[in-house]
Amino acid sequence: MYGVAFPLLYLELALGQYTHSSVLSIFDRIAPIGFGIGVSALWAVLMSVIIGSYFQEVVLTLFYASFDLFTTELAYDNCVGRWCRANCQKIKRRCEELGEAGHLEGYSYSEDFDTTRHSYIGVGDTCVHNEIKYWNKVYTDGQGSFIHSLPELHFSHAYFENYTTLELYSWPHVSSLASAITAACAMAYILSLRRRWVAYIAYIYMSLMFTVTVSIVVIYAYMDPPDYPTSHVFEKPLKFFNTETWLTAIIMACLCLRLGYGGMIYLGSQNSFHNNVQTDAMVITIIVSFIYVSQAMLHALVRDAFLLEAMGGDHQVFLATVQAANDFTLKSNRAGTKLIALFAASFETFRNMHAPLVMLLAVFGFFSALIRKMICVDVIYTALMDYWSFVQSKDIRSSVIILICLCSTVLGFISYCVNCFVIDISMETIVLPNVTCILILAELFVVCGLYGTRRFSNNISTMIEGKLSAIGGENWVNQITGFITMAMLKAVIPVAILYALITYMGADRTNMQFYDVMWQCVLLSPIGICAIIKVAYFYRHRMSYWRLFMPDTELWGPRATANRLLAEKNEKLVRY
């Protein structure tokens, strides 16, 4: 996050703040040959609005189901083990008190839990055995694969955990269509008539997410720490110098902050010209890093505790189950619904707090999906208005936003078809990540290559310091910092992202199909098409081709006259 994501976040925020323009206009003004970068980014934003409706439907269903928990018994069996539902026994927590296998009547392989033949060890709060004389690996793998059909067995809190169940029980359904249309109407109303609510909702959402994450961490770590079983995730030693670890981190860092889409450029354009963009970038990076890392660790811990209990304390089957859940060659394992379903079921660890936590998770899930789409729609609207220089009257704004919401909803209905879930997952986990990395590389080429890192650094100094920072020279600290920044943005980060992209696309676990490649080509095609159109335009009007790679002096720079004059003076000092 700090080696790759922070410099890129800093770059995009600074671009938006310096020009107060959208992603569609910035690259046209900084270098007309790169206009297609903004178009591709806008297409990626539109695609992120269209896909993902299934997640919204899942969390809504989860929210409705959680109401029953306050008046009735837990929606799924008190007995977690799926083989002992009739008797509802659980293995005793004190290993030395574990009796003969007779009290485990109804357990499918209770003969394995025989204290006369096997020794038991305590793992967390569960008694497990690690040696069985007549162990069958096929049986272990078969039992471990139950994770792929979890909702069909039990745990109604984990409904729609995989796509097979989603297809059989919900999709497409009248309620699914109604929820998608209702969400689109809510977005259109807020963005057209109550736009000031967007910032408040976003800040409230991030504040609540941060507060809840901190609270759960405090509860887990200090107030009421449960005894966790040995986690298969944390059994592995931390491979700090493992290439795969760093390549995965690079991809995830770009995805967590939604870099390359133009969202951070949009966020920067909302700031005042002399805002300290360094502080903003640092705060955003710290908060996002903490939230994602904490939630990932908590998910791994509660999931493993839940799965070990679901396996009746059988450590071998538990490891096989975790391995099956982490098999990302299956695209269904990458679904956000997979994570939220296991998380919801795992909250059973909190016993009496299970119902409120499930409801809270469902609310945050729906809130997150709605906020993400709402901001994406506003990014599209702002980009179109900025590029075509329309006067943003109330009527025009309402009409355009309603049209965008209507189009995205209608196009989103394409995914409401049988066997379309895997394509949705491919878009989320293969196509958009790859497109994001390629767009970031294109941005770095235009900003650091064509425009120049030194000029860009000077622009940032102009915004932050509000004076002619080039006069009088720079101290050695700023010189070293500038050198490191230029080296990172010009060489280290592009090479790292390119290597990570190639490795990710070629990895077996990515499971890239022909339609994934086709969609990537479609989303990235505007880069080449727009470049050809620009060249033809310059040729037709007999304009110098060098201007394709240079900023438009009339359009590039700050909007305000005073800031523009200051920026022009600083740029002249850098060039001459």
TrEMBL record:
Disulfide pattern: C79-C88
GO cellular component: plasma membrane
Domain of life: Eukaryota
Pfam family, one: SNF
UniProt xrefs under PROSITE patterns: NA_NEUROTRAN_SYMP_3
UniProt-listed InterPro entries: Na/ntran_symport, SNS_sf
GO biological process: amino acid transport; sodium ion transmembrane transport
Membrane-related topology note: Multi-pass membrane protein
Keyword Transmembrane applies: yes
Sequence intervals crossing the membrane: 30-55, 171-191, 203-223, 246-269, 281-302, 353-371, 400-425, 431-453, 487-505, 517-539
Compartment(s) where it occurs, according to its Swiss-Prot or TrEMBL record: Membrane
Example GO molecular function: symporter activity
Keywords: Disulfide bond, Membrane, Symport, Transmembrane, Transmembrane helix, Transport
Database matches in PANTHER family: BLOATED TUBULES, ISOFORM B-RELATED (PTHR11616:SF240), SODIUM/CHLORIDE DEPENDENT TRANSPORTER (PTHR11616)
Protein name as annotated: Uncharacterized protein
